[in-house]
Amino acid sequence: MHRFTLCAAVAFLMGAASLINSSSQATPKGVIEGDYVEARTCDVYTGPCFANSQVGLTGQEAILAWSIERGSYDGVDLAGLKVAVAVKASGTLGFGGGLVIHPFPVKSVVLVDERADERQREALVAFAREHAAGLADDVVTVQSLPIEMQLDHVEMVAILKAGDVAEIATRKLAGGDCVCTNEVVYYPPLTPVDNYEPAYTLTGRFAGRGLGGRWEDAGTRSAFLATFRYE
Q1: Cβ neighbours of residue 127 closer than 8 Å, sequence gap 6 or more
Q2: Dihedral through CA 45, CA 207, CA 36, CA 93, nearest 10?
Q3: What is the DSSP string of 15-57?
Q4: Residue 94: band (very low, low, confident or very high) from pLDDT cuts 50, 70, 90
């Protein structure tokens, strides 16, 4: 009898410990996190002289994309879903969205994971508008479509495909990508993110409607891979 009671107590304590351990590994309530990729139409990793030659001429367009690994927004679970924002500004997008040249007004298109239900779709749009740092205040259209997004933060390889509307492909920066040997991260990401590193853009393309034109920018040092954790 005593042996049974002892075994039951041990089993209970082991179960409780397991629950506590699982709880400690779970995402805290109100936290949403995952991977982020961004591509611009100007070099973000460059030397000051090269950057100055691009200011006012390029860098008005960008694609920002989030792959949500876990968490919820406004009480709606968004784990496993993705959302992207394509933006067209009136000037070169710079520090925090515009300390180099004031880029406003900015128009944007929000691309939402087609797997999202109605509540998730609304939450994804609200999430993107909040975290695009003012670049998604004027949303021209919202489109649901299949979104594929994969990031390798070690090899700096990113693949983003949002239907046939937007695409990003990157690789790690190599020694041959330096031109003046004075390159730095001249422009930080357009939105607050963590662990960001610049990457080489193999493909950066927007072929959708609503922004007054399409663009394609390849063979540039114009991308960022990062993670995000918002509370």
Answers
A1: 32, 66, 73, 78, 83
A2: 40
A3: HHHHHHHHHHHSPPTT-EEEEEEEEESS-SEE-HHHHHHHTTT
A4: confident
Cα–Cα distance, 231 to 229 (Å, whole number):
7
**Which amino acid is it at 223?**
A
The reported pTM is: 0.84
For the chain, give the number of residues: 231
d(CA 112, CA 140): 14
Residue 78 · residue 124 · CB < 8 Å:
yes
| pLDDT on residue 102 | 58
| Residues near 213 by beta carbon (within 8 Å), at least 6 away in sequence | 88
Count of alpha carbons within 13 angstroms of residue 36, beta-carbon side: 24
CA distance 120 to 75: 10
Give residue 179's Cα distance to chain centre: 27
Count of CB atoms situated within 10 Å of the CB of 138: 13
Residues 6+ apart with CB under 8 A from 105: 89, 90, 138
